[in-house]
Amino acid sequence: MMQDYTRTATYQRAMHDNAVDFKDKVIMDVGAGSGILSFFAVQAGARRVYAIEASSMAIHCQELVRTNNLSEKIIVVAGKVEEIAKHIPEKVDAIISEPMGFC
C-alpha cells in the first residue's frame, strides 16, 4: 500500500479531514501491515490504536512504532482479529482497515 502514493495519500487526507471522528478515540486497525493507517489515526488525534496483524509484518510494524516513539499510542498485537480479544483491555470506538486485494 505504501508504494501507491495516491491511495495512501487519500487515506491520510480522509482521516485528517475527519479528525473529529478520531480525536481521543480508541481505534482498531485490522490487518495493519506496516501500520501506516495506525500512524494516520494517531496524526488525526486517536488516543490509542491497536494495530492487529497476523503475519510476520507485525514484527516490522512494532519496530516502526518503536522507532517513531509511538509505543504509548500504537499497540501492535500479533494475531488474527478473531483471536485477540484478550489483548484489547478497553472498548474500541472505531475500526479501520485497508482490505483491498485480500482474497
UniProtKB/TrEMBL annotation:
User: Which BP terms in the Gene Ontology apply to this protein?
Assistant: methylation
Among Pfam families, the record links this protein to: PrmA
User: Which domain of life does the protein's organism represent?
Assistant: Eukaryota
Under which EC number(s) is this enzyme classified? Answer: 2.1.1.319
**Reaction(s) the record says it catalyses:** L-arginyl-[protein] + 2 S-adenosyl-L-methionine = N(omega),N(omega)-dimethyl-L-arginyl-[protein] + 2 S-adenosyl-L-homocysteine + 2 H(+)
The record's CDD domains line, in alphabetical order, gives: AdoMet_MTases
> GO MF terms on file?
histone H3R2 methyltransferase activity; protein-arginine omega-N asymmetric methyltransferase activity
Q: Which Gene3D superfamilies match?
A: Vaccinia Virus protein VP39
Q: What class of enzyme is it?
A: transferase
The record's PANTHER family line, in alphabetical order, gives:
HISTONE-ARGININE METHYLTRANSFERASE CARMER-RELATED, PROTEIN ARGININE N-METHYLTRANSFERASE
The protein, known as? type I protein arginine methyltransferase
Per the UniProt record, the source organism is Ditylenchus dipsaci
